[in-house]
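step=encode ok
step=design start
structure_in=
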C-alpha cells in the first residue's frame, strides 16, 4: 500500500498535554505504516490551527501577512543573466557606505568609489549624479557623502551656491568657510601648500612654479572664455612668476603688478604682458576684487571630515565670475590637500556644468579633471558631479562645439553613474549618451523620489532606493525652501 503524505497541524498555543497526544498519534501512524495497515488516525482529523491568517498580533512575534505580487515576466536564465542583467541582478553586496535597498535584488546596497576601483569594477574614481529638481539627487549626494565621512573618507565641497551643505558639515564634525562680497574672506589662489617631505627643495620649487603657472593660465582662459594664450603671453607669465619666486607668499595682485610694470626690449612680449595684466585686473579691481587677490585669511583644514566653501553670497555676481570663483576654490582645495595632507577625498561639485567648464578651461593639473585619472588616483581624489540633465551641458556651447564635446568626454569618464528621475523629453538624449536599452529608458521616467538607476562600470546595474534616518531627513531636506507640498 502506498504511503499517504499528510499535513500535520500544530497549534501555536497548544498545551503540553496536547503536544504529547500529537506525538503519540504520530508514533501510532508510523507503526501502522510499517505493518502495512490502514492508519487508524488521520492527521487531518485534528482541528485546524487557531492562529488567524495574518498571524497573532503579539509584540515581536515575527508573524504577519506576506503578500508578494511580482510583475509577470517569462524568460530563460540565459536571457535574464545576459540580455537583461538589471532584471537578474546578483544582489552581491559591495564594500562601502550604505545607500539603501537594491530594488532589483531586495538586498542592501553599499558603495565606495575607492573600494569599487580596488575590486576592478570601475576604472575611474569619478562619479555623476543626474536628476531633475525634486528627484532626491541632492539628498542622495548629502547622505552618501556624510556616510563616507563616517567611514573615514574626507569630503570637500568647493562651491555651495545655495548654502545647504553647511548643516551637513556640522553634522559630521566638519566646518564651513563663507565666501562673498563684503565678508572679508580672502583665498590666495597661489598658496604653495605644504611641502611633501619626500620632495627636495629644488623639486618643490619647480612644483610650486609649475602649479602657479597653471593656475594663472587657467584663470586667464576662464575669464577670456578661450583656450588660446599666445607665445608672447606665455613668456610674460613665466618671467613674472620667476621674478616672484624669492618671496614666501605670492598673490594675484603681485603677479598683476609685475606684469603691468614689465619691461623688456622685445616689444611684443611687453605688450603681451600688458594684455595679461588687463585680464587679471578683474580679480584685483573688478567683479571679484577683495576675494582672490590677497593673502588667505582662512585655512583649509585637511584633517576635517568635511570642508565646505559657502558661495551663496555670490549669486548676484555675473555667471562667468561664479565659474571663476569655483575654479579658484577648487584649485585652493587642491593645493591644500596635496603632499602630507593627501587623503582619499570626495570632491562634490554642485551645478556641475560650471565645474565641467572649469575642467575644459583649467588645463593640466586641475584637481577635478576627469581626463587625467592618473593624477586623481595619485592624489586620492574622487570627483562627484551633480547635474539636472544632459541639457545642462548646452550652456557650455552649441552641439558639436569643441568645448561642449570635451566636456562630454570628461563626463563619459565617470564610470559610476546614478540617474534619478528624468523628464520624458530628456530620456532619449540621456539614453544615447549612456548607452541605455529600451527597458532602462522606460524605467527612468517612472522612478520615484529617492530612487536611482546605478551604473557601475560595464557589469553592474542596480535600482536603489535611498533610505534616510529621521535625523538625516531633517538635515538634508531642502524642499521646504520651495514651500509646502
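sequence_out=
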Amino acid at each position: 500500500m502506498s504511503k499517504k503524505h499528510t499535513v500535520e497541524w500544530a497549534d501555536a498555543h497548544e498545551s503540553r498535554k496536547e503536544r504529547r497526544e500529537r506525538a503519540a498519534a504520530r508514533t501510532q501512524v508510523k507503526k501502522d505504516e510499517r505493518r502495512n495497515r490502514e492508519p487508524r488516525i488521520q492527521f487531518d482529523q485534528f482541528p485546524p490551527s487557531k492562529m488567524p491568517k495574518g498571524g497573532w498580533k503579539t509584540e515581536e512575534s515575527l508573524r504577519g501577512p506576506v503578500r508578494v505580487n511580482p510583475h509577470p515576466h517569462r524568460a530563460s536564465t540565459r536571457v535574464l543573466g545576459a540580455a537583461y542583467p538589471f532584471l537578474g541582478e546578483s544582489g552581491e553586496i559591495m564594500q562601502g557606505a550604505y545607500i539603501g535597498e537594491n530594488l532589483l535584488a531586495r538586498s542592501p546596497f553599499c558603495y565606495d568609489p575607492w573600494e569599487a576601483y580596488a575590486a576592478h569594477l570601475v576604472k575611474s574614481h569619478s562619479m555623476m549624479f543626474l536628476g531633475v529638481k525634486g528627484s532626491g539627487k541632492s539628498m542622495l549626494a548629502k547622505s552618501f557623502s556624510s556616510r563616507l565621512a563616517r567611514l573615514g573618507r574626507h569630503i570637500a565641497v568647493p562651491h555651495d551656491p545655495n548654502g545647504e551643505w553647511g548643516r551637513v558639515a556640522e553634522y559630521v564634525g566638519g566646518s564651513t568657510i563663507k565666501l562673498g562680497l563684503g565678508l572679508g574672506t580672502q583665498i590666495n589662489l597661489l598658496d604653495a601648500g605644504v611641502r611633501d617631505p619626500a620632495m627636495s627643495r629644488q623639486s618643490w620649487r619647480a612644483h610650486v612654479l609649475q602649479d602657479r603657472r597653471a593656475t594663472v593660465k587657467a584663470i586667464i582662459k576662464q575669464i577670456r572664455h578661450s583656450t588660446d594664450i599666445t607665445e608672447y603671453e606665455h613668456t610674460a607669465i613665466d618671467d613674472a612668476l620667476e621674478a616672484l619666486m624669492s618671496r614666501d607668499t605670492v598673490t594675484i595682485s603681485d603677479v598683476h603688478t609685475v606684469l603691468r610694470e614689465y619691461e623688456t626690449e622685445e616689444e611684443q612680449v611687453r605688450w603681451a604682458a600688458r594684455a595679461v595684466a588687463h585680464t587679471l585686473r578683474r580679480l584685483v579691481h573688478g567683479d571679484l576684487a577683495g576675494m582672490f587677490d590677497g593673502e588667505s585669511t582662512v585655512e583649509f583644514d585637511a584633517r576635517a571630515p568635511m570642508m565646505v566653501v559657502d558661495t551663496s553670497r555670490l549669486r548676484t555676481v555675473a555667471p562667468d565670475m561664479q565659474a571663476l570663483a569655483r575654479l579658484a576654490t577648487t584649485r585652493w582645495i587642491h593645493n591644500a590637500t596635496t603632499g602630507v595632507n593627501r587623503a582619499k577625498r570626495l570632491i562634490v561639485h554642485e551645478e556641475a556644468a560650471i565645474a565641467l567648464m572649469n575642467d575644459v578651461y583649467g588645463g593640466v593639473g586641475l584637481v577635478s579633471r576627469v581626463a587625467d585619472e592618473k593624477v586623481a588616483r595619485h592624489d586620492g581624489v574622487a570627483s562627484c558631479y551633480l547635474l539636472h540633465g544632459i541639457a545642462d551641458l548646452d550652456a557650455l556651447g552649441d552641439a558639436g562645439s569643441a568645448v561642449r564635446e570635451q566636456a562630454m568626454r570628461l563626463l563619459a569618464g565617470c564610470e559610476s553613474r546614478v540617474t534619478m528621475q528624468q523628464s520624458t523629453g530628456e530620456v532619449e538624449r540621456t539614453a544615447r549618451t549612456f548607452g541605455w536599452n529600451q527597458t532602462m529608458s522606460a524605467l527612468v521616467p517612472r522612478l520615484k523620489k529617492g530612487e536611482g538607476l546605478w551604473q557601475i562600470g560595464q557589469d553592474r546595474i542596480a535600482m536603489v532606493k535611498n533610505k534616510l534616518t529621521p535625523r538625516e531627513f531633517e538635515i538634508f531636506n531642502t524642499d521646504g525652501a520651495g514651500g509646502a507640498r
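step=design ok
step=annotate ok -> The radius of gyration is 31 Å.
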